[in-house]
Amino acid sequence: MAGYFFASPIDIDVKLEGEDVRKIVETKGDKEKTISCPVYYDGDSVSGQVSIRTRDGKKVQHDGIKVEFAGSIELFYDRGHHHEFLSLSQELAAPGEMRQAQTYDFSFKNVEKQYESYQGINVKLRYFVRVTISRRMSDVVKERDIWVHSFRMPPDSNNSIKMEVGIEDCLHIEFEYNKSKYHLKDVIVGKIYFLLVRIKIKHMELSIIRRETTGAPPNQYNESETITKFEIMDGAPVRGETIPIRLFLGGFDLTPTFRDVNKKFSTRYYLNLVLIDEENRRYFKQQEITVFRIPEN
């Protein structure tokens, strides 16, 4: 019987206006449950309806009902500590008692959402609607997540990347990528030139690495994950040989590059070229690229 007293006597449902026609992003909620979040953009209004009903038709006393729209950053090593960078609030009902189901409209007009939603290894940036029914014993709270995408065009200049890898008198290669900034559905086009090859290379691969940095020193955490890795060459190259590269980004689960979001985290991408010789020595060269989101048609 004990558990019965802690069961909430109230059910809350949050319906977002137009959610059926918005793009949906699946994300992990608590306890690894998958939740579906409608996608919003900076400046979009967030509006909808809150439906509240009491269980078994019992009357319920409350000290007021409010709805909030919030944006917060959760750092996983700092659990229970949420940094709210956005908090808007509207009162739905003054203190009183509820006997039957009630529906309330809410609208947060043209909300500035300055950051993009992000779920990483050590950090989560989320936006959500939160309904709170204040009660003397304990509040009844319901949250509903949305997902925010931002279009942040990088500066106009988009230089090609030229790099050299050299080991004195043994190896000299140059590689070139067509640009340094790519949108999420872009193609990386490049070439590798072998100018001098005196070591026995047996394998060469290109990978995209995502590096997430959270927190600030001394509590700074770096996590790197390899998003994709593909073989460029198998077997020994010869001097004067050129190897073309084409890597389509659309098939990977990339986010834009995030730099120092709210002084809490960064997410950066690197192209990593690795050469492995016959003695399994690895030579590599890393180059940062910028990834950005453009409006989809």
TrEMBL record:
The keyword Flavoprotein does not apply. One of its GO terms (biological process) is intracellular protein transport. Keywords: Protein transport, Transport. The keyword Protein transport applies. Pfam families: Vps26. It comes from the Eukaryota. InterPro entries: Arrestin-like_C, Ig_E-set, Vps26-related. Gene3D superfamilies: 2.60.40.640. Belongs to the VPS26 family. This is Vacuolar protein sorting-associated protein 26. It comes from Collybiopsis luxurians FD-317 M1.
